[in-house]
Amino acid sequence: MTRFWLIKLLRTGITLWFVVTFAFIVLRTSGDPVVALLGADAMPDEIAHFRELWGLDRSLFSQYISYIGQMATGQFGNSLRDSRPVMTIILERLPATAELGLAAFAIAAIIGIPAGIVAALRRGRLTDRIVMVFAVFGFALPNFFLGILLILLFSLYLQVLPSSGTGTFRHLLMPAATLATFTAGTLARFTRSAMLEVLERPYMRAAAARGVPFWQRVLFHALPNAAIPIVTVIGLNLGQLVAGAIVVESVFAWPGIGRLLVVAVSQRDLAVVQGLVLVIAVTMVLANLIVDLLYGLLDPRIREGAK
Predict the structure, then answer these.
(1) What is the pLDDT of residues 108-118, one digit of tens each?
(2) Where does the sequence pass through the membrane (predicted)?
């Protein structure tokens, strides 16, 4: 068991190092942030001064070593735009994104998992077809398009919900529903597939033969054994909720880290972009790490295979 955990933690560390390194190289080689901030009309002396001030006049390797050293001490630099610490800026926006992501995940889980279970139990019937149609609809519809449709319907036509901003539960409804649609459709499809596979197992027929009530067989026999693929999809989509928030926050002017990332990229604020990429990567990697660890709890055979 100890080796199982150590292997997962080592893979997590390597993945984060790769993401940080890749983001650092791409951002440093995709253009001069000083010119982007000062403008094309800036004097050469001004450009040279700010390049030296921000350490951009050094070699790429020297900048990389300094950045890794700063990260090791919990320092992520200052914003090139307003000289404030990067983590201070990110932490100001993080609660809004966490609120949106948790609300979206709750909606997706409450809708997607029960819908997948019902579709599996009603396989081939009208209920199954309706659930799968809505699942494909949610899976395929782009977030930005759905968000605009919701704004047109509920804000402009019906005038019952605010089109942007934050502060109340009414502000949260449309962004959370938009962000949850993809995850709900994915959960419904994978839950249905997992349940269909489990329902055909011999132990389900044996439980029925022993007279175990139908819903008890579903909840205490079928669902736990279908948990691993469902947990996999949940873990993957937890990370994707943060990445998907970039589009949704832009559409609804939600003041989270997704919108901050769009602004930082447009302004070539390297320090902020690097910090945000790291936060998003940590979220996705931790979600997958939690899924891997849950595998070991749900199925002891996985733990044994890691020894």
Answers:
(1) 999 999 999 99
(2) 9-27, 100-121, 133-160, 172-191, 226-252, 272-298
